[in-house]
Specification:
With 484 residues, the protein is mainly α. It has 17 helices and eight strands. Helix 6 packs across helix 12. The protein binds protoporphyrin IX containing FE.
Length: 484
């Protein structure tokens, strides 16, 4: 479907290629990447999606609910996301529909079962934070791949939510899960040629073969959980997302669901919804944690300020809690700055105009793809002072005591009807995992290793590079046990 604003596409494509440090460096490093990125820019131009830049305007479009004109579609990444989601039976890559609304509602009520912001979720996260700190204590002062440990911690939170289960370190199923997740992150939505020319599927493709293998592995694990949940299901054993979806399906079959006639919540919908929460819940949060540690290595003074704030607010006799969050603006500001400078999803997920509409002075025809250039919103020099610099202070008032929003050009979780479903949970995790680790440890670059460059790899999320850290136990904690 041809859209209206051609120049916009060119300008912004050019901007993505030139303004972005991350993509730009990739361009210099890998010629093949250059071709693909440039080609994508050209192809996007030919199919004329609409790119949005201005912060207020983008927010306006995303929250525009009256005609509900703009919603998500998977047009751009159709082949890989169809494989991942059994043709859009999930939430994130599904088109807007009454069934999609129903799936979102089900997930919302499952999340509220855990009482977002309330004790149950907090205690699950703190348990994982304690386990993370135990591992860091065992491995302290030796070079450690902290990403794997953080992934396990975040995975276990999401496993508790989805399946009421968790993994121990070294568990073979967990290792398999790490592998297939990485394969999916590496291959989905990276604007591979097969997404642009679906007919290329007839030719052998390494990426597509890897994705198929990873999805197969994921589906085996999901199916196993599904079978176990079905076998043990009773109405009063609804302790996780999977059983809560099962209950909704049973209610629906008993005509008790609030679904419109003709709509069907199939096993595939149920499995893909869980897979979605799993995928969206693990990769995003882990990625932000990795970027956070990477920036703390680059800015030891920021790390020290967070530790001073922790020492004053929490002290050494107890562990950080969610209620400390309101008294720790500097840590909160640091998290906001990480989400600004390295947005997890630099182009969000493509949206689509459901009806003919207008964005400012531009007419947007029904069916046009609307790509929100979050990278450019977060790095706009008109909105941000020295946007390339990591500076948590920009989110604090002059006294440095209160959080402050310097610009509307900031949408790390999107906005409107397709806003991230896990924003509250993610913010809880980011705060607690960072607070627990920094209360006890100081992160530094291990001897013999170099400072990791803040260069991302574009895929379904903007991935941080691999790096090792040394976690040194702070003086006050030496010789103490960690329990929760
Ligand atoms: C720091 C962590 C996270 C970030 C930065 C993040 C960011 C985002 C963004 C930018 C979108 C797309 C919005 C759009 O295209 O308009 C999104 C969608 C989504 N996120 Fe997150 N997310 C995070 C964590 C989570 C978690 C923990 C969950 C699940 C518990 C989750 C579930 C979802 C879902 C289901 C969608 C699709 C919503 C829809 O299409 O209706 N996210 N997220």
């Amino acid at each position: 479907m041809a859209a209206f604003i051609r120049a916009g596409a060119l300008d912004v494509s050019r901007e993505i290629l030139s303004q972005s440090e991350v993509l730009d460096r990739n361009r210099h490093q890998a010629n093949q990447k250059t071709t693909i990125v440039s080609l994508v820019a050209l192809l996007l131009l030919l199919s004329s999606p609409v790119f949005l830049e201005g912060g207020k305007r983008a927010t306006g479009i995303l929250v525009q609910t009256a005609p509900r004109a703009i919603t998500l579609t998977t047009n751009n990444w159709q082949v890989t996301t169809d494989l991942l989601t059994r043709n859009g039976k999930d939430i994130a890559f599904a088109s807007y529909s009454p069934l999609w609304k129903f799936q979102r509602k089900l997930v919302h009520s499952a999340l509220s079962m855990f009482g977002e912001g309330a004790e149950l979720l907090e205690s699950i996260i703190c348990q994982e934070a304690a386990s993370l700190c135990k591992t860091l204590t065992l491995e302290h002062d030796t070079p450690l791949d902290i990403a794997a440990e953080m992934t396990r911690a975040v995975t276990n939170v999401v496993c508790s939510l989805c399946f009421n289960s968790s993994y121990r370190r070294g568990d073979s199923e967990f290792e398999a899960m790490l592998q297939y997740s990485q394969g999916i992150v590496d291959t989905v939505a990276k604007e591979s040629l097969v997404d642009i020319f679906p007919w290329l599927q007839v030719f052998p493709s390494k990426d597509l073969a890897l994705l198929k293998k990873c999805v197969e592995k994921r589906d085996q694990l999901l199916q196993q959980q599904f079978t176990e949940h079905k076998e043990t299901f009773t109405d009063d054993s609804v302790l996780d997302l999977m059983s809560s979806l099962l209950r909704a399906k049973l209610n629906m079959e008993n005509n008790n669901s609030g679904l419109l006639p003709g709509m069907e919540l199939t096993d595939d919908h149920l499995l893909m919804t869980v897979a979605d929460i799993f995928g969206a819940g693990v990769e995003t949060t882990t990625t932000v944690l990795k970027w956070s540690v990477l920036y703390l290595l680059h800015y030891p003074e920021v790390q020290q300020k967070i530790q001073e704030e922790l020492d004053q607010t929490v002290g050494f006799d107890r562990y950080p809690q969610l209620s400390d969050r309101q008294h720790m603006p500097y840590l909160e500001a640091t998290i906001r700055e990480v989400l600004r400078i390295r947005p997890v999803s630099p182009l969000l997920i493509p949206h689509e105009a459901l009806t003919d509409t207008r964005i400012g002075e531009y007419d947007i025809p029904k069916g046009a793809r609307v790509v929100i250039n979050l990278w450019s919103l977060h790095h706009d020099e008109k909105e941000w002072d020295k946007p390339g610099e990591f500076n948590p202070g920009r989110f604090l008032d002059e006294q440095g005591n209160k959080l402050y929003s310097p610009s509307p050009s900031y949408l790390p979780f999107g906005a409107g009807i397709r806003v991230c479903m896990g924003e509250v949970l993610a913010k809880m995790e980011l705060f607690l995992f960072l607070a627990w680790s920094l209360q006890r440890f100081t992160f530094s670059v291990p001897e013999g290793e170099t400072l990791p460059a803040p260069e991302g790899k574009f895929g379904v999320v903007l991935q941080a590079p691999k790096f090792k850290v040394k976690a040194t136990l702070r003086k006050a904690w030496q010789g103490l046990e960690i329990d929760q």
